[in-house]
Amino acid sequence: MTNISDNDIIRSAINLVNEGMRVTFPVKGYSMLPFIIGGKESVDLVKPTELHVGDVVLAWVEQCRYVVHRIIRIDGDAVTLMGDGNVAGVEHCTVADIAALAVNVVTPAGRHHPLYNPWRRQTSRLWWRLLPVRRWILAIYRRTWLRFFY
Fold it and tell me: Which residues pair with 101 in a beta bridge?
């Protein structure tokens, strides 16, 4: 039996994305709540052509790990990322470290929901403005919605 690391799997997915394929990739953790539920939902990844603040990307950060997080700032070649479920802390990378752009959230039932339709863009902007109170909203969300519906 061969052990394959998470990074090996991610690099394989990135190779497919670079060949022009769309890859459905599972997301772990809760750092993208409430928009992406780790362990339950996946994202469709494509090769990025243009990056914008608000995009959800797969990136190699801090020269040590891959994350699926939202771009909160682009300053020349420097990119700052933050998970929607995080209340503090950001990651840094360069534009070259961004390996893929997430375009859809894929539910456990296999439904694909676009990440950049007007409703999702508007709610992600509102969510960003709620940063000071995210901790309490996320606590309620985890104890109610996730417990009973996922």
Answer: 46, 57
- The answer, as to whether pTM is greater than 0.85, is yes
Q: Looking at residue 5, what is its pLDDT?
A: 80
Q: Peptide bond before 26: cis, by omega within 30 degrees of 0?
A: no
- The DSSP symbol for 1 reads -
First to last CA, the chain: 32
Whole-angstrom Cα distance, residue 56 to residue 104? 10
Contact 93, 71 (CB under 8 A): no
* Mean pLDDT of successive 10-residue stretches along the chain, which has 150 residues: 79 95 94 93 96 97 93 97 94 97 96 95 94 92 74
β-bridge partners, 61: 65
What number of other Cβ atoms are within 10 A of residue 75's Cβ?
7
Instruction: Provide the 3-class DSSP secondary structure of residue 120.
Output: helix
Residue corresponding to tokens 């394989």: 12
Contact 144, 150 (CB under 8 A): no
Q: Which two tokens stand for residue 87?
A: 């209340």
CA distances from 12 to 33, 43, 125 (A): 26, 15, 32
- Residue matched to tokens 């802390």: 89
